[in-house]
Structure formats: C-alpha cells, structure tokens
Amino acid sequence: MTDAPVRVLYITGWLRTGSTLLGNVLNELPGVFHAGELHYLWRNGVLRTGTNTLCGCGEDLDGCPLWAAVLAEQDPGEARRMESWQQALFRTRHTRRRLAEARGDRAPAPGVREALDRMAGLYATVARHSGARTIVDGSKYPAEPAALLGRPDLDLRIVHLVRDPRAIAYSYRKSKDYIDPRTPVDSTRHWVAANVASELAGRAAAGRYLRVRHEDLAADPAATIARVMAFAGLPGDPPVAADGTAVLGANHTVTGNPDRLRRGPVAIRPDGAWREGLAPADAAVATVLAAPLLHRYHYPLRP
Fold first, then answer.
1. What is the band of 258 on the pLDDT scale with cuts at 50, 70, 90?
2. Could you read off the pLDDT of 135-190 as tens digits, one per residue?
3. Cross-referenced InterPro entries, in alphabetical order (predicted)?
C-alpha cells in the first residue's frame, strides 16, 4: 500500500493580495500547516543569503525547532542548484512551457525534473515534521503549480487570489520592512502578468483551481474561507467569528508579509483607503494597464 499524496494548497497571483492572512486563517484548522512562501526556504533558510530569515513564530529559521529539523535534511549544494533553477525555469514567463511539459506535450527542459523532485520532496518533509495533511504554500509563482500539476505524488490544488490593482498600487507607495515600494506602472504590469499566468495554470488544473477575490475575503471572511475549505477538502467550520474576527495563534511561515508575525484577534474588514488616497494619475495608469482583466474580475473601470 502506498502513502497518500501530500495535499498542497498553492496560492498564486500577484503580491499584496492577502495570501498571508488567508494562509494564517487556514493554519488554525486541524491538519493544516501554512508554510508561508516556501519558494524562499532555499535562500533564507539553507543558504542564508536572503533578506528575511525569520520564521513566523518570531525565531530565526534555524532556531525554530520545526524548521531546524527540516533544514537539517537539506543540502546547501542542492539549495544553490534550486536557486539557479528557480531563476532559469520558474519565473512567471515560464508558465506556459512548464504547463506543456506537465501535460506531456514537450520534453522537460534540463533541470525541470530535478527541481520538481526537490520541491515535492520538500513538501513531503514539511508534512512529516509538521504532522499536517495539507500544506498551504503562498509562494505565488504560477510556473511552480503549473509544473507540479503533473506530479502523481502531490494532490495539488491552486487558489488564485486576486485584488483590485489600484488597491495594490496604493499599498506599494511605501516600503514595508524588507519589501521595497513599486511604481503603479511596475506593480500593475506584474499584476497583469501574474494573473494571466495563474489563469493558464488554472485552466490546465480543471477542477483543482479556485479563484478568490481579496475583496470578497474582506467583506465576508467566514463564507469565503468556507468556500476555500470546501475546495481543499477541509472539514469543519471556518475559524472566523460572525463579526469577521479570526484569532490567530503561532505559525511557522517562511517569508511573507510582515503581518504574519501578528497573534491574537484579527478583524478582517474591507479597506477602501486607496479610493481616497491613491492619486488620480496613479489610479488612471493602473486602470489603463489592467483594463483587459478588470471586467473579468468584476472590478469597475471607475472605482
């Protein structure tokens, strides 16, 4: 009898969409482990060359008992190769090619099989040390789930998280700890590319794809979390009160929004500050660049 495949709930899309919040709420469910942005474990945990080596529990990754156990099984030489493969094979622009390989339409590029073996191996290691049946990975690199769709040892499910690009442009006006600011042009161009690539992966995933709007999560968190739970095959009630409050305990996330360090009651509410705070010229730029997708995601041209 073979072991059941590791269930991975991969959150994709662009940045500042609420993936950290979504993952940490799901982390409160039995049998669920939110790993944060696992893509960066090789850099921040193994090689120690990244800008954020803290675990969500507040300890350094190599000082956290859980990650210390995971890291003890990783080889620095493999980590260096993984970083090289990530840059060469798993950027947003590689999504279409990785999908073709996962479908068997073309032979995998050199390094793809090896990289996917290490990614799947890492999921299995994290599941073993955390004791979780479901791993939530908020890395948001659409080429990764696209490539992993072909893995029989993973029960991969894709959550595509979207948010109004003008709200994201407003959020990016200022830096946030180790996260640098971006211009509305830069942010929105990446928003378009990440969402188009995520939809490509979603179409290939068929019934293993769910798109969720940040605005729906903020307006009705209990119903939206319940929808994600049903999609992921997670039983029970959503860990969100009727008033939209979630009580967050400790987590062990790798990288991610600095808000991942928050504990205790968190009120999940809509935030419309960007509607007044975003300069009209910046709003216009984001609107024009994102126009082809705004209607698709039910965002008005005039917010």
1. confident
2. 999 999 999 999 999 999 999 999 999 999 999 999 998 766 656 789 999 999 99
3. Gal/GlcNAc/GalNAc_ST, P-loop_NTPase
In this structure, which amino acid lies at residue 7? Answer: R
CA atoms within 13 A on the CB side of 16: 22
Among 3.30.420.140, 3.40.50.300, 2.80.10.50, 3.90.960.10, name the CATH number for the domain at 6-294.
Answer: 3.40.50.300
pTM comes to 0.96
Structure tokens at 264: 């205790």
The residue written with tokens 């378009």 in the block is 192
